[in-house]
Write a structure and sequence with these properties.
- Strand 4 (83-85), helix 4 (89-97) and strand 5 form a beta-alpha-beta unit.
- The chain is globular, with a radius of gyration of 14 Å.
- It has six helices and five strands, in the order E-H-E-H-E-H-E-H-E-H-H.
- Helices cover 48% and strands 17% of the residues.
- It has 145 residues and is α/β, with parallel strands linked by helices.
- The chain has a five-stranded parallel β-sheet with strand order 2-1-3-5-4, sandwiched between helices.
- The structure holds D-ribose.
- Residues 8, 10, 42, 65-67, 69-70 line the site of D-ribose (RB5).
Length: 145
């Protein structure tokens, strides 16, 4: 599985920790920036990762800003993206099992590194259950038009 990862300055440090973790686990990733703590606009990075997922450059995305809120809103504006902002492992698990989330959003100023890495693990391991949830996912797509 190939992961696309991106953040603004508020998520930059956590992004670097996650990259290190993915490297240790032998999981391939593409870093869509940002590359420093210099202030940037989170929609630019949410869009880049979301478009990479929809365009199948990568299989799933991880986006990070200070709270995870702004970048998740931005990613969810891209048609075909189901971006889940998660602050706990239960939500991360359910985001895959029930919502077939294809992008995970994290708050770099909210989460400790240990919890964030656990959330990433659960998100990457989870498989969509399908069944009754498929109809619900399809209804989300209908809202997109
Ligand atoms: C940047 O200061 C901050 O607003 C951003 O990282 C994020 O938290 C927005 O939702």
């Amino acid at each position: 599985m190939k992961i696309g990862i991106g953040s603004d300055h508020g998520g930059f440090e956590l992004k670097e920790h996650i990259k290190e973790y993915l490297k240790e686990k032998g999981i391939e990733y593409v870093d869509y920036g940002t590359n420093s703590l210099e202030s940037v606009d989170y929609p630019d990075y949410g869009k880049k990762v979301a478009e990479a997922v929809v365009g199948k450059e990568v299989d799933r995305g991880i986006v990070i800003c200070g709270t995870g809120i702004g970048i998740s809103i931005a990613a969810n504006k891209v048609r075909g993206i189901r971006c889940a902002l998660c602050g706990d492992t239960f939500s991360a698990r359910m985001s895959r099992l029930h919502n077939d989330a294809n992008v995970l959003a994290l708050g770099g100023r909210v989460l400790g590194v240990g919890l964030a890495l656990d959330i990433v693990d659960v998100f990457l391991d989870g498989e969509f259950e399908g069944g009754r949830h498929t109809n619900r996912i399809n209804k989300i797509s209908e809202i997109e038009g």
